[in-house]
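Protein folds are increasingly written down as C-alpha coordinates. With that in mind, we are printing a sequence and the C-alpha coordinates encoding its fold.
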Amino acid sequence: MATEIKLPRLGQGMESGTVVRWLKQEGDRVEKGEPLYEVDTEKVTQEVEADASGLLLKISVEEGEVPVGQTVAVIGEEGEDVPDAEPEVDEEPLEEGSRAPARDEERERGREAEAAVETAPVEAQPQPSTTDGRVKASPLARRIASERGIDLAELRGTGPEGRIVAEDVERADAAPKPVAAPAAVAGEPEVEPLTSIRKTIARRLTKAWEAPVFQISMSADMTRAQELRERLAELTREGETKPTISDLITKASAAALLRHPQVNAHYENETLTRFPTANVGMAVATDRGLLVPVIRSADRLTLAEIAAARADLVERSRSGKLQQTDLEDGTFTVSNLGMYGIEHFIAVLNPPQVAILAVGTIEEKPVVVDGDFDVKPMMSLTLTADHRALDGSVAAEFLGTVRSFLEEPALAL
Protein backbone atom coordinates (compact mmCIF):
# COMPACT_ATOMS: atom_id res chain seq x y z
CA MET A 1 0.00 0.00 0.00
CA ALA A 2 1.35 3.42 -0.99
CA THR A 3 2.60 5.66 1.83
CA GLU A 4 1.83 9.36 1.92
CA ILE A 5 4.86 11.41 2.98
CA LYS A 6 3.73 14.32 5.13
CA LEU A 7 5.64 17.40 6.24
CA PRO A 8 6.89 16.58 9.77
CA ARG A 9 7.05 18.91 12.74
CA LEU A 10 10.80 19.46 12.98
CA GLY A 11 10.81 21.56 16.11
CA GLN A 12 8.74 23.05 18.88
CA GLY A 13 6.29 25.64 17.61
CA MET A 14 6.78 24.75 13.95
CA GLU A 15 3.48 25.10 12.09
CA SER A 16 4.67 25.18 8.49
CA GLY A 17 7.75 24.87 6.30
CA THR A 18 8.83 25.70 2.77
CA VAL A 19 9.86 22.86 0.46
CA VAL A 20 12.87 24.24 -1.40
CA ARG A 21 14.46 21.28 -3.21
CA TRP A 22 13.81 17.60 -3.93
CA LEU A 23 16.77 15.26 -3.67
CA LYS A 24 14.91 12.51 -5.56
CA GLN A 25 12.75 12.60 -8.69
CA GLU A 26 9.50 10.81 -9.45
CA GLY A 27 10.26 7.21 -10.35
CA ASP A 28 13.46 7.05 -8.27
CA ARG A 29 13.99 4.28 -5.76
CA VAL A 30 14.01 5.56 -2.17
CA GLU A 31 15.15 3.80 0.99
CA LYS A 32 13.68 4.55 4.41
CA GLY A 33 15.91 7.03 6.24
CA GLU A 34 17.44 8.35 3.02
CA PRO A 35 17.37 12.17 2.52
CA LEU A 36 14.34 12.93 0.35
CA TYR A 37 13.92 16.72 0.19
CA GLU A 38 15.01 19.97 1.81
CA VAL A 39 12.67 22.17 3.82
CA ASP A 40 13.20 25.72 5.03
CA THR A 41 11.90 26.58 8.51
CA GLU A 42 12.18 29.85 10.40
CA LYS A 43 15.62 28.87 11.67
CA VAL A 44 17.33 26.44 9.29
CA THR A 45 17.18 24.66 5.98
CA GLN A 46 17.49 20.94 6.56
CA GLU A 47 17.11 17.62 4.82
CA VAL A 48 14.06 15.47 5.59
CA GLU A 49 14.42 11.70 5.46
CA ALA A 50 11.99 9.31 3.79
CA ASP A 51 9.48 7.58 6.07
CA ALA A 52 9.27 4.48 3.89
CA SER A 53 11.07 2.52 1.18
CA GLY A 54 9.84 2.15 -2.40
CA LEU A 55 9.42 4.13 -5.59
CA LEU A 56 8.77 7.85 -5.40
CA LEU A 57 5.42 7.63 -7.18
CA LYS A 58 4.43 11.27 -6.92
CA ILE A 59 5.72 14.63 -5.72
CA SER A 60 2.64 16.54 -4.58
CA VAL A 61 4.41 19.82 -3.77
CA GLU A 62 7.37 20.67 -6.00
CA GLU A 63 8.23 23.65 -3.81
CA GLY A 64 6.46 26.18 -1.67
CA GLU A 65 5.10 26.64 1.81
CA VAL A 66 2.98 23.91 3.36
CA PRO A 67 1.56 23.32 6.84
CA VAL A 68 2.81 20.57 9.10
CA GLY A 69 1.01 17.30 8.30
CA GLN A 70 0.25 18.01 4.64
CA THR A 71 1.16 15.34 2.08
CA VAL A 72 4.14 16.36 -0.03
CA ALA A 73 4.83 13.05 -1.80
CA VAL A 74 3.75 9.43 -2.18
CA ILE A 75 6.05 6.40 -1.93
CA GLY A 76 4.98 2.89 -2.95
CA GLU A 77 5.58 0.17 -5.49
CA GLU A 78 5.12 0.25 -9.24
CA GLY A 79 1.48 -0.09 -10.26
CA GLU A 80 0.01 1.02 -6.93
CA ASP A 81 -2.74 3.62 -6.93
CA VAL A 82 -1.66 7.15 -6.07
CA PRO A 83 -4.06 9.13 -3.85
CA ASP A 84 -5.50 12.26 -5.39
CA ALA A 85 -3.75 15.48 -4.43
CA GLU A 86 -5.45 17.41 -1.66
CA PRO A 87 -7.17 20.59 -2.88
CA GLU A 88 -5.79 23.98 -1.97
CA VAL A 89 -7.66 25.84 0.76
CA ASP A 90 -8.07 29.57 1.14
CA GLU A 91 -6.51 30.29 4.51
CA GLU A 92 -3.52 32.53 4.82
CA PRO A 93 -0.04 30.95 4.72
CA LEU A 94 1.58 30.31 8.09
CA GLU A 95 -1.88 29.72 9.56
CA GLU A 96 -2.87 26.26 10.65
CA GLY A 97 -4.79 24.47 7.90
CA SER A 98 -3.31 26.44 4.99
CA ARG A 99 -2.03 24.60 1.94
CA ALA A 100 0.49 25.40 -0.73
CA PRO A 101 -0.49 25.29 -4.41
CA ALA A 102 1.22 22.97 -6.84
CA ARG A 103 4.01 24.97 -8.44
CA ASP A 104 3.62 23.64 -11.97
CA GLU A 105 -0.12 24.38 -12.16
CA GLU A 106 0.26 27.98 -11.07
CA ARG A 107 3.30 28.49 -13.27
CA GLU A 108 1.38 27.21 -16.28
CA ARG A 109 -1.52 29.55 -15.58
CA GLY A 110 1.01 32.34 -15.18
CA ARG A 111 2.57 31.62 -18.58
CA GLU A 112 -0.88 31.68 -20.19
CA ALA A 113 -1.62 34.99 -18.51
CA GLU A 114 1.71 36.39 -19.70
CA ALA A 115 0.88 35.51 -23.30
CA ALA A 116 -2.54 37.12 -23.02
CA VAL A 117 -1.40 40.34 -21.40
CA GLU A 118 0.08 41.68 -24.65
CA THR A 119 -3.39 42.12 -26.14
CA ALA A 120 -5.47 42.64 -23.00
CA PRO A 121 -6.08 46.21 -21.79
CA VAL A 122 -4.62 47.10 -18.43
CA GLU A 123 -7.44 47.46 -15.90
CA ALA A 124 -7.44 49.56 -12.77
CA GLN A 125 -6.25 47.49 -9.84
CA PRO A 126 -8.61 47.61 -6.82
CA GLN A 127 -7.30 46.76 -3.37
CA PRO A 128 -7.00 42.98 -2.86
CA SER A 129 -8.84 41.10 -0.15
CA THR A 130 -7.11 41.25 3.21
CA THR A 131 -7.29 39.44 6.51
CA ASP A 132 -6.44 41.51 9.59
CA GLY A 133 -4.58 43.95 7.36
CA ARG A 134 -2.55 41.18 5.66
CA VAL A 135 -2.87 40.73 1.92
CA LYS A 136 -4.32 37.31 1.07
CA ALA A 137 -1.96 35.51 -1.30
CA SER A 138 -0.80 31.96 -1.94
CA PRO A 139 2.71 31.00 -0.72
CA LEU A 140 3.98 30.65 -4.29
CA ALA A 141 2.58 34.08 -5.20
CA ARG A 142 4.41 35.59 -2.24
CA ARG A 143 7.68 33.92 -3.23
CA ILE A 144 7.45 35.07 -6.89
CA ALA A 145 6.55 38.60 -5.79
CA SER A 146 9.51 38.68 -3.41
CA GLU A 147 11.90 37.41 -6.10
CA ARG A 148 10.71 40.01 -8.63
CA GLY A 149 10.24 42.97 -6.29
CA ILE A 150 6.48 43.20 -6.81
CA ASP A 151 4.26 44.77 -4.13
CA LEU A 152 1.32 42.43 -3.48
CA ALA A 153 -0.74 45.31 -2.10
CA GLU A 154 -0.89 46.78 -5.61
CA LEU A 155 -2.31 43.63 -7.23
CA ARG A 156 -5.86 42.39 -7.69
CA GLY A 157 -6.36 38.76 -6.76
CA THR A 158 -8.34 36.42 -9.04
CA GLY A 159 -8.40 33.51 -6.60
CA PRO A 160 -11.19 32.64 -4.16
CA GLU A 161 -12.31 35.68 -2.13
CA GLY A 162 -9.86 37.88 -4.00
CA ARG A 163 -6.80 35.86 -3.02
CA ILE A 164 -3.67 36.61 -5.07
CA VAL A 165 -2.30 33.55 -6.86
CA ALA A 166 0.87 33.08 -8.89
CA GLU A 167 -0.73 33.96 -12.22
CA ASP A 168 -1.69 37.39 -10.85
CA VAL A 169 1.94 38.07 -10.02
CA GLU A 170 3.11 36.69 -13.38
CA ARG A 171 0.60 38.92 -15.16
CA ALA A 172 1.76 42.00 -13.29
CA ASP A 173 5.39 41.18 -14.05
CA ALA A 174 4.63 40.77 -17.76
CA ALA A 175 2.68 44.04 -18.00
CA PRO A 176 4.44 47.00 -19.68
CA LYS A 177 6.43 49.03 -17.18
CA PRO A 178 6.61 52.82 -17.25
CA VAL A 179 10.03 54.15 -18.18
CA ALA A 180 11.50 55.87 -15.18
CA ALA A 181 13.27 59.19 -15.53
CA PRO A 182 17.03 59.05 -15.04
CA ALA A 183 17.97 59.29 -11.41
CA ALA A 184 19.39 62.66 -10.48
CA VAL A 185 21.60 61.18 -7.81
CA ALA A 186 23.66 57.99 -8.09
CA GLY A 187 23.28 55.28 -5.48
CA GLU A 188 19.56 54.68 -4.98
CA PRO A 189 18.58 52.96 -1.72
CA GLU A 190 18.08 49.22 -1.93
CA VAL A 191 15.06 47.67 -0.23
CA GLU A 192 15.45 44.04 0.80
CA PRO A 193 12.65 42.02 2.43
CA LEU A 194 13.60 40.22 5.63
CA THR A 195 14.41 36.53 5.30
CA SER A 196 12.60 34.06 7.54
CA ILE A 197 15.66 33.83 9.78
CA ARG A 198 15.94 37.61 10.14
CA LYS A 199 12.21 37.78 10.94
CA THR A 200 12.76 35.19 13.66
CA ILE A 201 15.75 37.16 15.00
CA ALA A 202 13.70 40.37 15.00
CA ARG A 203 10.81 38.70 16.82
CA ARG A 204 13.02 37.09 19.46
CA LEU A 205 15.04 40.26 20.08
CA THR A 206 11.84 42.26 20.48
CA LYS A 207 10.72 39.73 23.08
CA ALA A 208 14.10 39.97 24.78
CA TRP A 209 13.81 43.74 25.19
CA GLU A 210 10.56 43.24 27.08
CA ALA A 211 12.46 41.49 29.90
CA PRO A 212 13.76 43.62 32.81
CA VAL A 213 17.46 42.83 32.53
CA PHE A 214 20.62 44.05 34.21
CA GLN A 215 24.30 43.67 33.35
CA ILE A 216 27.38 43.05 35.47
CA SER A 217 31.02 42.84 34.34
CA MET A 218 34.32 41.38 35.49
CA SER A 219 37.76 40.88 33.95
CA ALA A 220 39.56 37.54 34.00
CA ASP A 221 43.32 36.98 33.96
CA MET A 222 43.74 34.55 31.04
CA THR A 223 47.39 33.65 31.69
CA ARG A 224 46.73 30.06 32.78
CA ALA A 225 43.97 29.58 30.20
CA GLN A 226 46.29 30.60 27.36
CA GLU A 227 49.04 28.34 28.65
CA LEU A 228 46.62 25.40 28.83
CA ARG A 229 45.28 26.05 25.34
CA GLU A 230 48.80 26.15 23.90
CA ARG A 231 49.76 22.94 25.69
CA LEU A 232 46.61 21.15 24.51
CA ALA A 233 47.22 22.36 20.95
CA GLU A 234 50.68 20.77 21.05
CA LEU A 235 49.18 17.47 22.23
CA THR A 236 46.38 17.42 19.65
CA ARG A 237 46.87 14.64 17.16
CA GLU A 238 46.54 15.06 13.40
CA GLY A 239 42.90 15.10 12.34
CA GLU A 240 41.65 16.24 15.75
CA THR A 241 40.31 19.70 16.51
CA LYS A 242 42.56 21.98 18.51
CA PRO A 243 40.82 23.48 21.57
CA THR A 244 40.34 27.25 21.54
CA ILE A 245 39.76 29.89 24.20
CA SER A 246 36.06 29.73 23.24
CA ASP A 247 36.04 26.04 24.15
CA LEU A 248 37.56 26.84 27.55
CA ILE A 249 34.88 29.50 28.10
CA THR A 250 32.17 26.97 27.23
CA LYS A 251 33.60 24.43 29.68
CA ALA A 252 34.03 27.02 32.44
CA SER A 253 30.46 28.29 31.92
CA ALA A 254 29.03 24.77 31.99
CA ALA A 255 30.87 23.91 35.20
CA ALA A 256 29.72 27.18 36.80
CA LEU A 257 26.10 26.53 35.78
CA LEU A 258 26.08 23.31 37.79
CA ARG A 259 27.31 25.20 40.84
CA HIS A 260 24.66 27.89 40.33
CA PRO A 261 21.54 26.08 39.04
CA GLN A 262 19.46 29.27 39.33
CA VAL A 263 21.31 30.54 36.23
CA ASN A 264 20.88 27.28 34.30
CA ALA A 265 17.17 27.94 33.86
CA HIS A 266 14.29 29.16 31.72
CA TYR A 267 11.76 31.81 32.73
CA GLU A 268 8.44 31.46 30.95
CA ASN A 269 4.81 32.16 31.88
CA GLU A 270 5.82 33.24 35.40
CA THR A 271 7.48 29.85 35.94
CA LEU A 272 11.14 28.96 36.48
CA THR A 273 12.46 25.68 35.07
CA ARG A 274 15.92 24.63 36.24
CA PHE A 275 17.88 21.99 34.36
CA PRO A 276 20.20 19.24 35.66
CA THR A 277 22.65 19.56 32.77
CA ALA A 278 24.21 22.52 30.97
CA ASN A 279 23.28 22.85 27.29
CA VAL A 280 25.44 25.80 26.22
CA GLY A 281 24.49 27.72 23.08
CA MET A 282 27.12 29.64 21.14
CA ALA A 283 26.26 32.60 18.94
CA VAL A 284 27.52 32.01 15.37
CA ALA A 285 27.43 34.69 12.66
CA THR A 286 26.43 33.33 9.23
CA ASP A 287 25.49 34.82 5.86
CA ARG A 288 21.83 34.09 6.69
CA GLY A 289 21.91 35.71 10.13
CA LEU A 290 22.85 34.93 13.71
CA LEU A 291 22.34 31.31 14.78
CA VAL A 292 22.79 29.76 18.23
CA PRO A 293 23.57 26.04 17.94
CA VAL A 294 23.76 24.16 21.23
CA ILE A 295 26.50 21.99 22.72
CA ARG A 296 24.46 19.56 24.81
CA SER A 297 25.60 18.37 28.23
CA ALA A 298 28.73 20.51 27.98
CA ASP A 299 29.34 19.92 31.69
CA ARG A 300 29.89 16.21 30.99
CA LEU A 301 32.19 16.64 27.97
CA THR A 302 35.96 16.84 27.94
CA LEU A 303 37.60 19.89 26.43
CA ALA A 304 38.52 17.85 23.35
CA GLU A 305 34.90 16.74 22.94
CA ILE A 306 33.67 20.32 23.29
CA ALA A 307 36.18 21.43 20.64
CA ALA A 308 35.01 18.73 18.22
CA ALA A 309 31.33 19.58 18.83
CA ARG A 310 32.01 23.30 18.38
CA ALA A 311 33.89 22.82 15.11
CA ASP A 312 31.12 20.62 13.71
CA LEU A 313 28.31 23.02 14.68
CA VAL A 314 30.13 26.10 13.35
CA GLU A 315 30.90 24.39 10.03
CA ARG A 316 27.31 23.23 9.59
CA SER A 317 25.96 26.65 10.66
CA ARG A 318 27.89 28.40 7.92
CA SER A 319 27.21 25.78 5.26
CA GLY A 320 23.46 25.71 5.95
CA LYS A 321 23.47 22.09 7.18
CA LEU A 322 22.18 22.57 10.71
CA GLN A 323 19.22 20.52 11.88
CA GLN A 324 16.37 22.06 13.84
CA THR A 325 17.37 19.98 16.86
CA ASP A 326 20.82 21.62 16.85
CA LEU A 327 19.16 24.89 17.88
CA GLU A 328 16.86 23.57 20.59
CA ASP A 329 17.03 22.99 24.36
CA GLY A 330 19.77 25.52 25.14
CA THR A 331 19.89 26.53 28.81
CA PHE A 332 22.57 29.27 28.58
CA THR A 333 24.31 31.20 25.79
CA VAL A 334 27.83 32.52 25.23
CA SER A 335 28.45 35.29 22.70
CA ASN A 336 32.15 35.81 21.95
CA LEU A 337 33.23 38.79 19.82
CA GLY A 338 36.83 38.69 20.97
CA MET A 339 38.02 37.46 17.58
CA TYR A 340 36.75 40.77 16.11
CA GLY A 341 38.82 42.85 18.53
CA ILE A 342 35.79 43.93 20.57
CA GLU A 343 36.93 44.87 24.06
CA HIS A 344 33.56 44.93 25.82
CA PHE A 345 29.91 44.62 24.81
CA ILE A 346 26.47 43.76 26.15
CA ALA A 347 24.68 40.74 24.70
CA VAL A 348 20.91 40.66 24.31
CA LEU A 349 19.08 38.02 26.34
CA ASN A 350 18.08 34.81 24.51
CA PRO A 351 14.60 34.03 25.96
CA PRO A 352 13.47 31.91 27.68
CA GLN A 353 17.03 31.56 29.03
CA VAL A 354 17.65 33.76 32.06
CA ALA A 355 21.24 34.81 31.28
CA ILE A 356 23.76 35.27 28.49
CA LEU A 357 27.53 35.84 28.71
CA ALA A 358 29.29 38.37 26.46
CA VAL A 359 33.05 37.82 26.00
CA GLY A 360 35.51 40.40 24.70
CA THR A 361 39.02 40.14 23.31
CA ILE A 362 42.10 39.30 25.38
CA GLU A 363 44.26 42.39 25.89
CA GLU A 364 47.58 42.95 27.59
CA LYS A 365 46.79 45.36 30.44
CA PRO A 366 48.66 46.70 33.45
CA VAL A 367 47.34 45.29 36.71
CA VAL A 368 48.40 45.53 40.33
CA VAL A 369 49.78 42.27 41.78
CA ASP A 370 50.97 42.27 45.41
CA GLY A 371 51.39 46.02 45.32
CA ASP A 372 53.42 46.04 42.10
CA PHE A 373 52.38 46.73 38.52
CA ASP A 374 52.42 43.83 36.10
CA VAL A 375 51.09 43.23 32.58
CA LYS A 376 48.50 40.47 32.23
CA PRO A 377 46.33 39.13 29.38
CA MET A 378 42.91 40.30 30.55
CA MET A 379 39.48 39.43 29.09
CA SER A 380 36.17 41.15 29.83
CA LEU A 381 33.14 39.10 30.88
CA THR A 382 29.68 40.73 30.88
CA LEU A 383 26.61 38.88 32.07
CA THR A 384 23.12 39.97 31.03
CA ALA A 385 20.53 38.55 33.43
CA ASP A 386 16.74 38.51 33.62
CA HIS A 387 15.86 40.24 36.90
CA ARG A 388 12.58 38.33 37.10
CA ALA A 389 14.58 35.14 37.63
CA LEU A 390 17.90 36.28 39.09
CA ASP A 391 19.01 38.76 41.73
CA GLY A 392 22.25 40.66 41.43
CA SER A 393 24.01 38.65 44.12
CA VAL A 394 23.27 35.32 42.39
CA ALA A 395 24.44 36.68 39.04
CA ALA A 396 27.61 38.08 40.63
CA GLU A 397 28.44 34.78 42.32
CA PHE A 398 27.96 32.90 39.03
CA LEU A 399 30.14 35.31 37.08
CA GLY A 400 32.79 35.12 39.79
CA THR A 401 32.82 31.33 39.47
CA VAL A 402 33.26 31.57 35.68
CA ARG A 403 36.20 33.92 36.22
CA SER A 404 37.76 31.56 38.79
CA PHE A 405 37.49 28.62 36.39
CA LEU A 406 39.13 30.62 33.60
CA GLU A 407 41.95 31.82 35.85
CA GLU A 408 42.45 28.30 37.19
CA PRO A 409 41.18 25.99 34.40
CA ALA A 410 42.04 22.84 36.33
CA LEU A 411 39.14 23.61 38.68
CA ALA A 412 36.65 23.26 35.81
CA LEU A 413 38.26 20.25 34.14
In short: The chain is about 25% helix and 25% strand. Residues 87-127 have pLDDT under 50 and may be disordered.
